[in-house]
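Project standup — Tuesday

K.O.: blocked on the structure for the chain from last sprint. Re-posting the sequence here as requested.
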Amino acid sequence: MLIGAIVVSTFAVIWIAAGTRNLGRRWFSCLLSISILISLGVIVAAGKIAPAHRATFNGKAYGLSVAFETVLIFLAVFFLRSGDRKRFLLPIISIIVGLHFFGLVWALGSNEYWFVGSAMCLWSILTMSIL
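H.V.: unblocked you, prediction finished:
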């Protein structure tokens, strides 16, 4: 559980940094600091929580999910940059990562990833509709 919290927290900080880099130095620093503090809190809490059930891992489902995510991200970057649609890059990548979480349901045997994947996809679609 601790390794998962470290990985997820690291990605959360990276996403905050990517998403706030154009807000100005003050907002960027403030939001990045908050995300780091929250991530550290998640990591500390994960180290103290005992898992409710025995962990399962399906390597084939995990590998397919990561491969799907990687290929689609590279394709999205290529097509969005060549089509001068860079403003959609982060929301599209977020949708792809959200879809990747659906694959983690089978890879890690946890239904919680349905919510995470759905939230990421819906939030990104909302963001693009505003853009």
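K.O.: great, moving the ticket to review. The mean pLDDT is 86. The CA atoms of residues 62 and 104 lie 6 Å apart.
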